[in-house]
């Protein structure tokens, strides 16, 4: 609850600082420029903003078109390679997806098993050390 109050106080301070800065800048701008100069300046800034937005639209559109053409070209090349490849190429173990997936699955299972066995060994070793360390000898 206390943290929430501190955060809300911090937000209020930031908001009041922003409002104060906004008010000062507004007074400086209105006193520095005549209304006609201010209108011309704002018109210029709005034109710059509109041109920036339109150029961004064109950039994104042409980027999407270029990406689509690139993907189409890559798919065509891959399809041609698959069509014109010999069957013997797929029989080789390094080019076979099934063999590679099987090898990857075996290596992951092997690593997981080793990790699990090491963890169990460490836990049992710790339990054994604790048990042996707490043995009391009778004289």
UniProtKB/TrEMBL annotation:
Keywords: Membrane, Transmembrane, Transmembrane helix. Residues 53-109 form the ABC transmembrane type-1 domain. GO terms for cellular component: membrane. One of its GO terms (molecular function) is ABC-type transporter activity. This is ABC transmembrane type-1 domain-containing protein.
């Amino acid at each position: 609850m206390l943290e929430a109050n501190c955060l809300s106080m911090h937000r209020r301070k930031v908001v009041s600082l922003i409002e104060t800065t906004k008010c000062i800048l507004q007074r400086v701008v209105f006193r520095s420029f005549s209304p006609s100069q201010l209108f011309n300046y704002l018109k210029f800034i709005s034109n710059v903003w509109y041109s920036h937005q339109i150029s961004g639209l064109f950039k994104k559109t042409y980027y999407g078109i270029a990406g689509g053409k690139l993907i189409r070209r890559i798919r065509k090349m891959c399809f041609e390679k698959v069509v014109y490849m010999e069957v013997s190429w797929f029989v080789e173990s390094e080019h076979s997806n099934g063999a590679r997936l099987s090898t990857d699955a075996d290596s992951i299972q092997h690593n997981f098993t080793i990790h699990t066995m090491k963890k169990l060994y460490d836990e049992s070793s710790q339990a054994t050390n604790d048990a042996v360390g707490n043995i009391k000898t009778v004289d």
